[in-house]
Write a structure and sequence with these properties.
The chain is an alpha/beta fold and 274 residues long. It is built from 11 helices and 8 strands. Bound molecules: 3-methyl-2-oxobutanoic acid. 3-methyl-2-oxobutanoic acid (KIV) binds at residues 31, 50, 52-54, 92, 146, 189, 191, 212, 222, 224.
């Protein structure tokens, strides 16, 4: 087992993401929470790695993203940053670490940047978190917004169904996207909203719009790595394209291993020291 040494690969920056939008090149983004997987995803060439607070679900087994702490996010982010040669690493500020006031938001962002080495932070919300966004940006920390289905507000919404289907909510989302752009955010994640609305938002702002369940007209796409690799089970929303069935593959491999141990086929003489 070896820990890699960084090489001279050109790193993705927020400016490059902006240039990608301007030349019509779609941006690829996936979640990552640990060194080994982040190493594979970065090596495969993904543009942005999101250390999402979905770690609360897929890594810790919680029902929602609410329980994960700032310390735990920093732990995950540190592991991902260590793995990366090229991708931009964006780190979610977790629930309860920025909603109190803008000073708390800035402190959380600074802890993430200082302790993990992440390259940017992501917060959920629009107009209501404007002061926090501005304060974090004024410290030189790049900020990504997140609108539409914002999982930290799940108890307010009551369900994980598609957001902004009604005119009033759709208009607020467009207004919020413009507020985040004016503040200076470098991009916005749009989660689970109608494709037509996402297209309208992507056309209304100059900054990159990254969709998850927001249709094909966003400037890029993000998926939770455990979902697209088929590690999670029983989570098959319409927007998810599953590229592997790792759950089945891992189960098969582990079953073979158990069989080999029980039958004393493993280890053989070649796998033992003389
Ligand atoms: O935490 C996360 O994984 C996210 C994505 C769903 C965008 O915020």
């Amino acid at each position: 087992m070896s820990i890699h040494k960084p090489n001279q690969i050109k790193k993705i920056t927020t400016h490059q993401l902006q240039a990608m939008k301007e030349r019509g090149e779609k941006i690829s983004m996936l979640t990552a929470y640990d060194y080994s997987m982040a190493r594979i995803l970065d090596g495969a060439g993904v543009d942005v790695l999101l250390v999402g607070d979905s770690a609360s679900n897929v890594m810790a087994g919680n029902e929602t993203t609410l329980p994960i702490t700032l310390d735990q996010m920093i732990y995950h982010a540190t592991s991902v940053v260590r793995a990366v040669d090229r991708a931009l690493v964006v780190v979610d500020i977790p629930f309860g670490s920025y909603q109190g006031n803008s000073r708390e938001a800035l402190q959380s962002a600074i802890r993430i940047m200082k302790e993990s080495g992440g390259h940017a932070v992501k917060l959920e919300g629009g107009e209501e978190i404007k002061e926090s966004v501005l304060r974090i940006l004024s410290a030189g920390v790049p900020v990504m917004g997140h609108l539409g289905l914002t999982p930290q507000s799940i108890y307010k919404f009551g369900t994980y169904s598609v957001r902004a289907k009604e005119e009033a909510e759709a208009q607020k989302l467009i207004d919020d996207a413009k507020v985040l752009e004016e503040c200076g955010c470098f991009g916005i994640v749009l989660e689970k909203i109608p494709a037509t609305l996402a297209k309208k938002v992507a056309e209304s702002v100059r900054i990159p719009i990254i969709g998850i369940g927001a249709g094909p007209d966003c400037d890029g796409q993000v998926l939770v790595m455990h979902d697209m690799l088929g590690i999670t089970q029983d989570f098959k929303p319409r927007f998810l394209r599953q590229y592997l069935d790792l759950n089945t593959e891992i189960t098969k491999a582990v079953s073979r291993y158990i069989e080999d141990v029980k039958s004393q086929d493993f280890p053989n003489t070649n796998e033992s020291y003389s």
